């Protein structure tokens, strides 16, 4: 696989985030929360966007709670 300078794969981002897979990250891409580019069959995320995403979502698991969940 050819590396893009300044980008990491979605799999690498999942590894850094401590996730078991990339499904949740793909959902974040679809919702526009995580900017990414699809090249061929692989998703690529800019290093800077990955750092911001990890900082904003550090330690958070699952969907956010709402008043109705309580």
pLDDT average, as an integer? Answer: 87
The biggest beta sheet reads: 3 strands, antiparallel
> How far apart, in Å, are the first and last alpha carbons?
46 Å
Number of helices: 3
Order of the strands making up the biggest sheet = 1-3-2
Low-confidence runs of at least 5 consecutive residues: none
Q: What is the helical fraction, as a range of percent?
A: 25-40%
Give me the secondary-structure category: alpha+beta
Strand content: 15-25%
Structural descriptors:
70 residues; 3 helices; globular
Summarize the structure.
It contains 3 helices and 3 strands; from the N terminus they run E-H-H-E-E-H.
How are the secondary structure elements laid out?
Layout: E1 7-9, H1 10-17, H2 23-30, E2 37-39, E3 42-46, H3 47-57
Antiparallel strand pairs: 1-3, 2-3
Explain what you see.
The chain is an alpha+beta fold and about 70 residues long. The protein has one domain. Helices cover about 40% and strands about 15% of the residues. It is built from three helices and three strands; from the N terminus they run E-H-H-E-E-H. Strands 1-3-2 form a three-stranded antiparallel beta sheet. The termini are far apart.
